[in-house]
Write a structure and sequence with these properties.
Elements lengths: L3 H4 L3 H4 L2 H15 L6 E5 L16 E6 L2 H7 L7 E3 L12 E6 L9 H11 E11 L1 H4 L5 H6 L12 H10 L3 E9 L7 H10 L10 H12 L12 E8 L10
Length: about 250
């Protein structure tokens, strides 16, 4: 997994910058009920998305486990940022109206624990919003994807939509909606994909073994148009609602 403290200084420029952040924030807000007054954005990173989760009457807070990310986010997020593991939030039960997790659940093997913790801190009537199936979204059917296909296994993804839905249901949440948004600037090139493989990206599906890395980067180097971005991915957001009369499952 990447060192997100080390990534903090270059994170925004390598993740699509403001256009992608705006698209993500707009999509999240489409799934947050109009009456919500507080929102906690998990793994808020540098706060580029979080600061755009704005509308009248909504107070937004951020949480991130990486000190380097949190130091940057605190300059952007008006509601404040807490240094916290998403599996153990420093909040009482039923304390916020909405929890968002954008580009988080695919990174960790303990996504179920994050969903459970989000359910715990939601008030009755609150909503949990998260991106799912992120790796699958990056497969846009390009020549790069054909090179990577033998090594990809979306079945192993910790943010598979069906797994997240099952966990949410087990913790008293019910499906409430879904939407998609464009990952502006995330259409990759053969050269960038090879560099990312060498830097340890794609840990959710790539084993990182030296032999495999050499073989893959050689195949990528043989593709045409080494610096032409392929199509941008379209990410999927889902939401889950806590019914007013349903208690939290702590199992």
């Amino acid at each position: 997994m990447l060192d997100y403290d080390a990534e903090a200084d270059r994170y925004d420029e390598t993740r699509g910058g403001v256009p992608r952040a705006e698209a993500a924030a707009e999509a999240v807000l489409r799934l947050v009920p109009p009456g919500a007054r507080t929102l906690l954005d998990l793994a808020c990173g540098t706060g580029l998305v979080t600061e755009r989760l704005t509308r009248p009457g909504l107070r937004v807070h951020g949480a991130d486990a990486a000190p380097g990310m949190a130091r940057k986010a605190v300059r952007r997020v008006r509601g404040g940022v807490v240094l916290a593991d998403a599996r153990a939030l420093p909040l009482p039960d039923g304390s916020v109206d909405a929890v968002s997790a954008v580009w988080l659940l695919h990174l960790v093997p303990f996504s179920a624990a994050i969903v459970a913790e989000a359910a715990r801190v939601l008030r009755p009537g609150g909503v949990f919003v998260a991106t799912v199936d992120k790796d699958a979204a990056h497969d846009v059917g390009s020549d790069i994807d054909r090179v990577l296909a033998p090594y990809r296994s979306h079945e192993r993804a910790s943010d598979r939509g069906d797994l997240i839905a099952a966990t949410a249901t087990a913790h008293g949440l019910v499906p409430a909606g879904a939407t998609r948004f464009t990952g502006h600037g995330q259409g990759t090139t053969p050269r960038r994909t090879a560099e990312n493989l060498r830097r340890g990206y794609y840990a959710s599906w790539f084993d990182g073994s030296p032999g495999t890395t050499v073989a893959l980067t050689a195949d990528l180097a043989a593709l045409p148009d080494q610096d032409r971005p392929r199509a941008d991915p379209a990410y999927r957001l889902v939401s889950f609602h806590r019914p007013v009369d349903r208690p939290v499952n702590r199992d």
